[in-house]
Structures are given as structure tokens and as C-alpha cells.
Write a structure and sequence with these properties.
heterodimer; A: 312 residues; alpha/beta; 4-stranded antiparallel beta sheet; 33% helix
Chain lengths: 312, 258
């Protein structure tokens, strides 16, 4: 449904995201996890067609966001960091306007607006001016506008910010409900949120993907196997084949030209064997780590752990 | 076309339910209701004097020249200040409140956004000019007036206001601050009147002809006298197109900058 290849965005000298590669299947709920400023919002803005990438491509439903922005935008519901609400409109009028803007017409218009209001529990405030609503309600109106046209793809940038715990739980339930029917990408830096809602996680730091896998694989690796994260200076073409040929190696996946994920059977000397192979290959071993059990630990390791001095 | 209509309707509702627009209309009505009867009274006195003395030129005894043209130039002066107030929030507010994200991620083109917003600005300006038109029109109860001349003259002022609206919409697209947009727009509106001053400055006939053609005053004066010239229509239409096009480019460029 969503294909991102070598996506790069530079703001002048600063590189916000650097050659991202990932795919999202139809009906999947994917969490975009990363510290503030990691490039989550930038990636989302590019996928929605709000912003043009410096390099690389992004496709939604088979349409390139750059070549065919209108087709892509018809299929997307987007909640930016700040909910894009008009303060001087009534909740219901606003949702109707958004639905029309997204191309909903005729009889389904009212049905769609009613459904969005119902799903986000806005019924009590639908006749009120948005400027008079609390932050939590505004955020819910923002979610409702993303849902209102019943889009195939939902892109939610920190959807639960500003909500109280009960509302957070409601929104998480809502996102879980959407699974299967809609493809959802949501960004957050709140770990329990991903654990509660997402099937797959993409962890991003300093504009690079540092890990992407299903929640199950990331947090509790299947017994009898282990995952090794490898970082090399310069991969030779045959490195993947050579690593695969090693005894006890199950799979080798490259997440970027420098980063590799290796699944291996549970044995003590896997790391040793991989390391010596990499060195023999002349690829320049930079880092080799064994995957952790706890999501929070993985997150901290992959993000803050890379910085000089690490996390105190 | 449908998308333009949706954006137009939303902005037009914004005008109608926004106190600013109603306050502007109220103030205009208050000012004109004071100025216009006074102009009429002065005109009446002039006629009475001329009946006794017979000294005034014929042209000044015509109500179109004696009253309506002053009324029009007064409306024009107010439009220079009012049009920016109506257009200033059209884009800058969207940028500031981040609602621009919604428009730019919806299946509408930049051109549709600009045209929808521009038409809503025209509708609001049309309402303001209609208020101004009521004064001469109601004079018809006790004076003979030439309707076509009057309508063409107001059509001319509407076209000038449409040029202001296009320029001011462009100003609004450039900034996030409504105040900056307002000030910039007023400067644009005023300066466009001074371009024609080049006629008095240059010597070469070719340059004079160019200045005459780009002078807003030159083209408007045809309209206020009741003549519709295609050069005038083309001049106004090209200015409107130019600035709407520039706004569209600015919107499109925001995808690349930010």
C-alpha cells in the first residue's frame, strides 16, 4: 500500500531524513517511533504529498506522491501535529467541509460525517464553535477530519497528544478497530502506545531507520533464536551471501547500505562468527549488538545509545 | 470546478459570520451616509448659484460629474484600505493556524485554492461596492440619472477593486502575519496609482505610450465616463491573472521550501 524507497529530505545543509526504505501492507497498523526531531513528521509530510522529497520515491496505492499527488491525496487522511481546524467553524460544518474537500458527495456525505462524529465521540459538541473547545476535543476533531472521508490510508502524527487518559484509551481502541480495513501509520514517542496499537514498528533516529520489525519479534524474540544488529562501514556486494552461508544463520536483511539485521539460531558463537566474517570481508565492522528483550531498552539503545556518551 | 465552489462557499461563510466584514460594511455605510448627502447638498447649492449667475461650465451641472464621480473616488480611496482588510487573512491565517496543511493534503490543486479564495474576496468586495452603489441609485427618486453610465462607472471601480484583491491576495500568500500582509497590501494598492506618474517624467513618445497603458488611472477614467474599452478590460484582466498566478506559484512553492 505504501512504498518508500531511498527517501531523503534536506533542509539546506541539514538532512532531516536519510535514504529511508520501508513498505506498509494493506490493512497494517505501523508505528513510527523515534525521539523528537528524528524525522517522523517529515516522512509523514512527504507521504501525504504536503512536501516534496529531495530524493527518492514514495508511493501510496500504486501512485507516486510526486507524480500523481491528487490521486494520492484522495486516498489519505492526515492528522498533522497541530490539528488543522478552523476556529470560526462549527464542528459539524467543519467536518462536512473536509469531507467535501476530499470528494465525498451526495447522500454519503451525511453518513460519513455522522460516522466520524460517532467514532470520535464528538456528538455532544458537534454544534459548537471549534475555538471554544478544549485541546483534547480539538485533537479529536483533528482525528475526525482524518477519518471523515473513509480513506484507505490514515497518517496520524502523534494522535493522542493532549488527550486525557480515558480519551487516549478510546483513541487507541479506535485505531485498533481500523486495523484490517484501513492502512494506518502513526507516529509517537510514547512506547506503550505502540505496544497497544501497532503490529509493526519502525524505529527512526537522526533520519535513519534503526530497526523495523513486528512487535513480537522486537520485544520477545522467539525462543531458540536471536537477532543480531550489525553496522559496517562499507558493505561489499557478496557480504549478504557470505553471511547467509555461515552455520546457524537463518536470515540476513539489509535495512540500509550500512545496517544489517541477522537472525540466527541460539548459540553463543554466532556473534563471533559474524564478526570474523565481516572482518575477513573487509567491510569494516562498526558495531554489532545482540537484540534486547524489552522494547523500551531496544528503543533507548537504538536511538539515544548511538550518541556519544550514551544515556546516563 | 466543484472544489473551487466548495472553497468559495467556505470562505464566503467565513466572511458572513466573521464580525470584521460586518463591521467594515457598517462603518462604510456610516461614513457614506454622512458624506453623500453633504455632496448632494453642495451640488444643489452650486446649481442654484449658477441659475442666478450663469457662470458655471455645463459639465459641472451634470449630477454624474458633480456628485457621482466624487462619490466614486471616495469609494476608491476606502477600497484601498478596506480590500487588504478583507483579504489579509485568506492565506496568512491558514498558514498561522496550520490549516494550510489540510488544504495542501486534500485532493485540490493550488489553482483551485487560489481561485476559490479570490472569488470569495470578489464577492465580499462586490457587497461593499453594492452598498456604495445604493446611494446614487436611490438619488433616482428625485433626480434624472443616466443608469448605464452609472453602472459602467461602478463596473470600472469593481474592476479596480478586483485588481486590488488579486494583489492583496498575493501579499497574504507571502506571509504568516495578517498585519504584515495588510501593510504590504496597502502599499501595493497605493503604489499602483503612482506608476502612471511616469507619463509626466519621460520624454520619449514610446515611453509615454507605455506609461499611459500601464496607468490604472488612465483605464479607470474611461469607465467612469461610461465608456467600456477593451484595452481597459484586457489591462485589468491581465493584472488580475498575473497576481493570481503569482499567488498560485507561492502556494505551490511552499511544498518545496518549509
Amino acid at each position: 500500500m505504501i512504498i518508500v524507497e531511498n527517501l531523503t529530505k534536506k533542509y539546506g545543509e541539514h538532512t532531516a531524513i536519510d535514504r529511508l526504505n520501508f513498505h506498509v501492507r494493506k490493512g497494517e497498523v505501523v508505528g513510527f517511533l523515534g525521539p523528537n526531531g528524528a524525522g517522523k513528521s517529515t516522512t509523514m509530510k512527504i507521504i501525504t504529498g504536503f512536501m516534496a522529497p529531495s530524493e527518492g520515491i514514495a508511493r501510496v496505492g500504486g501512485f507516486d506522491v510526486f507524480e500523481n499527488p491528487i490521486e494520492v491525496k484522495k486516498r489519505i487522511g492526515y492528522l498533522p501535529e497541530t490539528p488543522p481546524v478552523y476556529a470560526d467553524m462549527l464542528v459539524r460544518d467543519y467536518l462536512t467541509f473536509v469531507a467535501q474537500l476530499k470528494g465525498v458527495e451526495g447522500a454519503s456525505l451525511k453518513t460519513f460525517v455522522d460516522r466520524a462524529i460517532e467514532k470520535t465521540h464528538l456528538g455532544a459538541v458537534q454544534k459548537r464553535l471549534i475555538q471554544n473547545l478544549s485541546k483534547g476535543f480539538k485533537q479529536r476533531v483533528g482525528i475526525a477530519q482524518a477519518l471523515v472521508s473513509n480513506p484507505e490510508v490514515l497518517i496520524l502524527d502523534e494522535p493522542t497528544v493532549g488527550l486525557d487518559p480515558k480519551q487516549v484509551a478510546e483513541i487507541r481502541d479506535l485505531i485498533r478497530e481500523l486495523r484490517g480495513e484501513h492502512t494506518v501509520i502513526l507516529s509517537t514517542h510514547i512506547l506503550p502506545e505502540v505496544q497497544a496499537t501497532c503490529e509493526r514498528i519502525i524505529i527512526i533516529n537522526h533520519g535513519k531507520i534503526v530497526a523495523q520489525d513486528s512487535l513480537a519479534n522486537l520485544s520477545t524474540l522467539k525462543s531458540g533464536s536471536r537477532r543480531v544488529h550489525l553496522k559496517v562501514r562499507k558493505a561489499n556486494a557478496d557480504l549478504q551471501e557470505r553471511l547467509k552461508a555461515l552455520p546457524g544463520i537463518l536470515a540476513v536483511v539489509s535495512t540500509s547500505p550500512q545496517d544489517w539485521q541477522i537472525d540466527a539460531t541460539e548459540s553463543e558463537d554466532v556473534i563471533e562468527r559474524v564478526a570474523s566474517e565481516v572482518i575477513k570481508n573487509g567491510a569494516g565492522l562498526l558495531e554489532i549488538t545482540s537484540a534486547r528483550a524489552d522494547l523500551e531498552e531496544i528503543f533507548l539503545k537504538l536511538t539515544y545509545g548511538n550518541e556519544a556518551g550514551g544515556l546516563a | 470546478m466543484k472544489k473551487i465552489w466548495i472553497i468559495f462557499r467556505k470562505e464566503w461563510h467565513g466572511f458572513l459570520f466573521n464580525p470584521n466584514f460586518l463591521v467594515v460594511c457598517g462603518l462604510i455605510t456610516a461614513v457614506l451616509s454622512w458624506v453623500y448627502p453633504n455632496a448632494l447638498r453642495a451640488f444643489k447649492m452650486q446649481i442654484e448659484t449658477s441659475v442666478y449667475a450663469g457662470s458655471l461650465p455645463q459639465q459641472q451641472l451634470n449630477i454624474h460629474y458633480g456628485v457621482f464621480l466624487r462619490h466614486l473616488s471616495f469609494i476608491n480611496l476606502m477600497l484601498i484600505l478596506i480590500v487588504p482588510a478583507l483579504t489579509m487573512r485568506l492565506f496568512s491565517e491558514e498558514k498561522k493556524m496550520r490549516t494550510f496543511d489540510l488544504l495542501l493534503t486534500s485532493p485540490v490543486t493550488s489553482a483551485q485554492i487560489v481561485i476559490g479564495k479570490y472569488l470569495s474576496a470578489l464577492a465580499a468586495i462586490g457587497a461593499v461596492i453594492f452598498l456604495g452603489f445604493l446611494y446614487p441609485a436611490l438619488t433616482a427618486f428625485f433626480a434624472n440619472i443616466n443608469w448605464m453610465t452609472l453602472i459602467v462607472a461602478f463596473g470600472g471601480i469593481f474592476l479596480v477593486a478586483a485588481v486590488y484583491a488579486a494583489m492583496d491576495l498575493f501579499c497574504s500568500s507571502l506571509t504568516e502575519s495578517a498585519i504584515v500582509s495588510y501593510v504590504m497590501a496597502v502599499v501595493f494598492n497605493i503604489s499602483v496609482w503612482f506608476v502612471g506618474m511616469g507619463v509626466d517624467v519621460v520624454d520619449s513618445p514610446a515611453a509615454r505610450a507605455v506609461f499611459e497603458h500601464i496607468s490604472l488611472n488612465q483605464h479607470l477614467s474611461g469607465f467612469v465616463e461610461g465608456t467600456v474599452r477593451t484595452t481597459g478590460l484586457i489591462f485589468f484582466a491581465s493584472l488580475i491573472f498575473l497576481f493570481c498566478f503569482l499567488s498560485e506559484r507561492v502556494i505551490e512553492a511552499s511544498r518545496w521550501r518549509s
